[in-house]
Amino acid sequence: MTRAVKSVLLAPPLARAGYLYATTVALLWGFTLSTGKVRRVDSLFVCEGMPKWAFSRGGSCVGGVYLTDTNTKPPVLEHEAVHRQQWKKYGMVFPVLYFLAGRNALTNRFEIEAGLEKGNYR
């Protein structure tokens, strides 16, 4: 990716728009499918009681929303709050960067940055 393309894709206004779009879609998904609480923990929306097919691993952060069934211990929410910050920084480019970083959490730079132990990866 050229420097010019990178600077446009990661420009704060575009990243913010992508973050807000992802958050809106995830909130709709969460409110529709959640059978548990939907609450706010600091700046992270947490949708509990989601069906297991509606997220990956123990839960998924999409924009500013964490989708999970019951995986809501404080260290996990701290881990997911870092993913929220990553979404804010990269916007809709984040899923692509995350995919390119690899599925193995132990070598994925975004999971490492969020804290492997807090994310239950160790």
Automatic annotation (TrEMBL):
Transmembrane in keyword set: yes
Keyword terms, alphabetized: Membrane, Transmembrane, Transmembrane helix
Membrane-crossing residue ranges in chain numbering: 18-36
The name this protein goes by in its record: Fe-S oxidoreductase
Species this protein is from: Agreia bicolorata
